[in-house]
Amino acid sequence: MKLLIKGGTLMDPATGRVNEEDLLINDGKITKTGVNLSDDSAEVLDAAGKLVTPGLIDMHVHLREPGFEAKETILSGALAAARGGFTSVACMPNTNPVADCGAIISYIRGKAREAGKVNIYPIGAITSGSKGVELAEMGDMQKAGAAGFSDDGQPVMSAGLMRRAMQYADMLNMTIISHCEDKSLAGGGAMHEGYMSTVLGLPGIPASAEEVVVARDILLAEETGCRVHIAHVSTAGSVRLVREARARGVQVTAEATPHHFSLTDEAVTGYNTNTKVNPPLRTDIDVAAVRQGLADGTISVIATDHAPHTIEEKDVEYGLAPFGIVGLETAVGLVWTELVATGILTPLEAVAKLTSNPASILGIAKGTLEIGADADITIIDPMATWTVDPEQFASKGRNTPFAGRVLQGLPYATILSGRIVMREGALL
Amino acid sequence: MGLSGKDLVGLQHLAAKEIKLILDNAIPMKGIIQRQIKKVPTLRGRAMVTVFYEASTRTRASFDLAAKYLSADTIGITAATSSVSKGESLRDTARTIAAMGADVVVLRHPMAGAAELLARTVGASVINAGDGAHEHPTQALLDLFTVNEKKGRINGLKVAIIGDILHSRVARSDIWGFSRMGAEVRLAGPATLMPPGVEQMGARVYEKIEDALDGADVVYILRIQRERQQQGLFPGLREYSQLFGINAERLRLAAPDVLVMHPGPINRGVEIAPEVADSLQAVITEQVTNGVAVRMAILYLLVGGGSQHEITY
Fold first, then answer.
1. Residue-range domain boundaries for chain A
2. Which residues of B touch A195 (CB under 8 A)?
């Protein structure tokens, strides 16, 4: 089965190549690129005026299955990913049971194969049950197909345990993804600690709650040599710490979410629980620093931290609502509107943070348009403007603070192994 | 003219002229309370429901009496006896109450933002009787009324608020209210109980309590709760009393005709020395009386003859 993508701009961050060429797919692989390609036996997809990029990769999502299927399932999450232009996602282990052994990793991969639509890379827990007490069976999980380790949602509060986790993961040549939050500083906070939390009377989470653990994990990464990836960087101080560490050669990478580069804590005004997220929305100074970190390469990955919840769970008092924002279906629009249209990132830089960079951190053979590569491809219409309507989401989660926002940049088609799984918003 | 919104959730967004309107209307209401027959027919046929998710004797009694003096029907729901303990959500409880035909819902709730959530859910007027550490607007309005009554003005006065500002909804509403009416608001208290960015609200934070008290026209003392000590926020009540307790000696730093205020209930010998609580400068009991009058004015303006929101909202 052949597919010919014609008239688009090919953008391959793995090679830095940007040119107006056609791309031919045969049998799930990219077989040819060039000007004015033709193949009578191929289905033709017109990509005129659009960007043809490697399939987007979201290395930080919560698919909620097993255990929390009312929030999301692997299937609904896969559909949301396809609709958002993603062909690969890495799902965090805070399910029930926690993905902390090979059997659960295998279960998730099996469910993922059944769902199709997207490649799913499970992340295994660092500690048993993500309880932060003893190490989980990382070797077993690696054999079962885990793509990295994280206790995301919870910090590994013991520095001693995190140090051993890094030593062990480094032995396996795997990456630790760290959710940086000192619980004794974050306390029972509901939003960023600052002027807005004072006005709203909500308990605050200071920036230092994140930064002390970022600093700790950088020091431990430096000592152990383990590759460490800092999840959802939200503060100016964290950006500075990562920048300094990278400058001295520490193997640390970082990601930022669309909500952390788009919104400040002022969005919490009115107590809209869809703004409640961990780490919390920060100040304009932090948003500017995150954007600067994205621009100068300190933050090499954009990941959504897609965290679906039911309407019933979110439709409560702010302090009682669970943390989390859905992100898969708004990511491309927010990246283009907030980062590309504003000149903070070139389209190629933005695509790299959504493809080749997360692929290299996870160690997966994705994120390139080279001949012979898997034909996971996303076609983006960078000029399309659209309005965020949560009712149209394929995700079960409707918890977005961006409802009603007009965005520029829309995934036009998602192609998985040469097969069109989404076209113009319709799932196929 | 009336109030611009259907609810009273906080003072942050209340205009100075709306505050003045409430204070003006509270004057005749206080007259009613001082009569032998304390009843006018203003709110006859109107129903007020008080929903208290937190224990409170005085605020609830104050609302209850205010409504009864105006001839409204009242009923109270508390967390202990209602479906609250059955896990019913605030929104569902609110819809149930609204479906029973309440005109006003008075809400006291431990979570910030609860009143705003309720106001968005029901068509009835919602009065915030305290939501977490957010706001307690009727308390601040009765404080403003009391100061205005005693001093004849609010504009230009020095108001020192002392204590646990971080957890205090009273402090927040008073900061908005007094600063909007032209007073100079000063804050002092343990650094661990001073919320970040509070100066942006229109107050000034003093490191030394003596500087905050210097020449103050009003000393507003907040209640300190023992549980903050257990949370590690300050070393203990003994030291608190030494560093921040208002005694006769400290009070001499303030203006000779200073007013001593407290939202109650007071901890004698902790944040306020007995000789100060019982001094002529203390107007704590009058605050309670004025609370009824101010709440009558608010009920009248929201759902009585003064209500405009049906046409302007």
1. 2-51+373-427, 55-362
2. 196-198, 200-201
